[in-house]
């Protein structure tokens, strides 16, 4: 990454180092010369010397020989000679000697230049988190950024891009381990466990992602870099362990998540990313799992949440757990303001990281099968028992197609002793995952029920089908969203239906159901999909990736060292002041250069 | 300026002479030199434990001691010095060649927790 401008800076640095060297010679250790020892920017044992025009070849040779040096080459640049120093002599000493030689006009180190560490990945220009040029990315506002508001990562790539020595567990919806930018960077488990991870949703050894979220997270951490494909992760080479604890809809349970954490710890992960959370009560077993990770020296990076709320007021777990191996991350937008959705917490959220319009790997191609229940105004679903009809209602000024029982809903009521069924068959063959989505206004009194079933062989889903949900209930006069995992129904003929069952007691006026915006979202796994999305879920893996890089660069790092470097190495950002424990956004290069204060100082007086 | 300094030196010598020749008062405790070994836990940064890295030991009223990396897996984590009777505050900082801009201007840690050393 060094540029010509930087080389001037380094030349100035060498000058400063020479001055320091003189001070140290006069008063040893009064000013410890830790900068002067930094010789990695030029070739040790060599200098370049420019002799004055009057210094003929014989004079040049004599000057060099007098210092015990040898001439490697006379360079094409007039007057310049490439010189090899005597064994054990430093470049600094040689430069002083040549500067005192009256035949010499100038002398300098033989600097080392590096290729600019910008990867070849074709979509790199959209990764504003790594290089914010003020580019336009995605659609989440504001989608035009401020140049320089990024993670300062390119300089770090001059020092490390291979972090494969550190296993990072993505505890999420799984990972598409066949994705073109991830396949080479997946954990392989070794001979005792030759898998990419584990699936605690289906309880098998295939952690394939049926949602996309986990694959997106994995790509932010470690999509293969400089491979002329797609994007790059925080590190170009990584070891990503896929731990599936969230289903196709992105939901999971305490039981699955804690099993996933323990699996990751047992199989050697040193960083765990959990872009998940809940605003529920304190979860003891979840907390215990974080403690287990801490006791095994594992850093756990979690998201602050997306509800625009203060976690100090309304706790959000796992963010609000207090173990010292935990780092909780808020999301910043492209101008380094707190993202409009991001939670915060002056005592519970630690750092911020880019979290809007983040481009990364995806599990596959997505599709939507939408259904509006009618053909030219006539219900086109199969019915039995009557009751269900097609109708239209205006909601907030917009006309929507509805599936209704009774047809007068939300006025009137359905009949007694009803068994009203309505269903339709969909072809879901070829898809890897399917999610059923609809919105509904519901008012079903106790004793009656509304059932939702599917059947993967078509026909009436209430005859030998599987129930997704059922019973009485009310949405309180509002229209509410509902989602269900329909993946088990994937087949050529997947029938989905609603059944309204009533007893002999009359339901009050206003009882019934109205369903709208019915759709089935599908996912077809492939190897080449990418997606741009926003969330603290996206900010979290930026930090987990940094934790991975720090532990790879400093193999002796403990969780405490790593967390210290992340928190203290960050860049102060006004939007995070009073909103996080540090007031800082992560800064990769600064964290890489950060040095934790020494500990354990003791004295023995004799 | 030189005259003033000389006067101070003369006064100091005179006072020392009075103290040495006086009788009847209690004598100040003798000032003695002691060997003091300072040790700390190794830092885990690669840069501290490689060329250009090391530690600085700061002792109140004394020149800073440089403890550079020399060879092997870690930089030295102790130093031996001589201190005379008194109370000293000691801190250690770690350093490395890499700086926060990715160059080699160097980085320095914050000081360790300070240690009070009483030399009898």
Identify the biggest protein-protein contact and residues per side: A-B, 50 and 56 residues
Q: Please bin the fraction of helical residues of chain A.
A: 10-25%
As for the CATH topology of the largest domain in chain A, it is: Rossmann fold
Rounded to an integer in angstroms, the radius of gyration calculated over CA atoms of chain B is 21 Å
Kindly report the name of the CATH homologous superfamily of the largest domain in chain A: Peptidase S8/S53 domain
Annotation, overall tally of beta strands of chain B: 7
The global form of chain A is elongated
Indicate the proportion of strand residues of chain B.
Answer: 35-45%
Overall morphology of chain B: elongated
- Give the % helix of chain B: 10-25%
Assess the beta-strand content of chain A as a share of residues: 25-35%
Number of separate structural domains of chain B: 1
Quaternary form: heterodimer
The number of domains of chain A is 3
Number of helices of chain A: 9
Structural class computed from helices and strand pairing of chain B: alpha+beta
Helix and strand succession of chain B? Answer: HEEEEEEE
Question: Whole-number radius of gyration of chain A?
Answer: 32 Å
Q: Ends of chain B: how far apart? A: 37 Å
**What is the level 1 CATH name of the largest domain in chain A?**
Alpha Beta
Structural features, described:
The complex is a heterodimer of chains A (606) and B (120). Chain A has helices at 4-26, 57-66, 91-99, 213-222, 254-266, 284-295, 536-553, 559-568, 588-593, and strands spanning 42-51, 70-74, 80-84, 104-111, 162-172, 197-199, 237-244, 271-274, 299-303, 326-332, 351-354, 358-361, 364-371, 374-375, 378-379, 382-384, 389-395, 398-405, 419-426, 433-444, 449-455, 466-471, 473-474, 480-485, 494-501, 512-525, 530-533, 571-572, 584-585, 602-605. With 606 residues, chain A is of the alpha+beta class. In chain A, the strands form 6 sheets. Chain A has a 9-stranded mixed sheet, sandwiched between helices. In chain A, strands 13, 17, 18, 20, 23, 24 and 26 form a 7-stranded antiparallel sheet that branches. In chain A, strands 16-19-25-21-22 form a 5-stranded antiparallel sheet, with no helix packed on it. Chain A starts with a helix and ends with a strand. By secondary structure, chain B is α+β, with helices and mostly antiparallel strands. Chain B contains 1 helix and 7 strands, in the order αβββββββ. Chain B has one helix at residues 2-21, and strands at residues 33-39, 54-59, 65-68, 78-84, 86-96, 107-108, 115-119. In chain B, strands 2, 3, 5, 6 and 7 form a 5-stranded antiparallel sheet that branches. In chain B, strands 1-4 form a two-stranded antiparallel ribbon. The longest helix of chain B is centred in the N-terminal third of the chain and has 20 residues, at 2-21. Residues 1-24 of chain B have low confidence and may be disordered. Chains A and B meet through helix 1, helix 9 and strand 30 of A and strand 1, strand 2, strand 3, strand 5 and strand 6 of B. Strand 30 (602-605) of chain A pairs antiparallel with strand 1 (33-39) of chain B.
